[in-house]
Amino acid sequence: xxxxxxxxxxxRWTPIFARLPEDKRARVLYAAKRAFAERGFAGANVNDIARxxxxxxxxxxxxFRTKQDIFLAIIERSHEYLEExxxxxxxxxxxxxxxxRALLEAAVxxxxxxxxxxxxxxxxxxxxxxPLALGLSRSIxxxxxxRYRAMVAEAKLAGEVAPGCxxxxxxxxxxxxxxxxxxxxxxxxxxxRLRLFLGEGADEDPASVxxxxxxxIYRALGAAERP
Length: 227
What we know:
By secondary structure, the chain is mostly helical. Helices cover 74% and strands 0% of the residues. Helix 2 packs across helix 5, helix 6 packs across helix 7 and helix 6 runs parallel beside helix 9. The termini are far apart.
């Protein structure tokens, strides 16, 4: 079956899926996300996904050609949300400090509201998903890399960070810190790690974590003395 690659829906799913009511599409994708979050890519079973979504396995394969396409469709929907979130914050907030804080707060909020997606992202970093990792990193991380480099460059021009700050290295470190904060509120392993470093109860006090990481970033980039 030819796949319509119009902007109305991604090539990961078929035109049949695109024509479904939005609530049914959401139900299928939610069932798949839960399965991948709980069991990993290899452990997730299409029969279980179909059962949880209230459809037949045959119908599921009319919507998606492969299990990999289901997985990548979920990743790509999250990628769209990431792009909208980062772009919205940078467009709305004025000044480097305000943007850093808002991005950290968004990382916490997305993690606490959608821990399944955090677990899927963590699964993407494993060797098991090595064949998919290169494409995923290009599509997902390129948005953050471009936005954060521009954000640091603008802050340098405004005198908000040290003039000698390496924009690419700063963007890389910012993205790593934002990801680590996000993981720390959506995964039991990373919650334990957060408590180990910042003390018991740190995972229940996101404001203090945002404050501490923000202060670290300001000092690291030479922005601590600015209001």
